Amino acid sequence: MAEEREGADWHRVQAVAGASRHPVARLRGSAGADRRVISGIVHVLKSGGRWADAPPVYGPRKTLYNRFVRWAAKGVWEDIFHALAAAGGPPAQVMIDSTAVRAHRSASGGKGGKRAQAIGRSRGGRTTKIHALSDPLGRPLAFLLTSGQVADCTAADRLLDRMPATDLLHGDKGYDSAAVRRKIEEARAAPNIPPRANKRWKNCFSPYLYRNRNVIERMFGRLKDFRRIATRYDRSATNFMAAVHIVATVAYWL
Question: pTM value?
Answer without folding.
Answer: 0.90
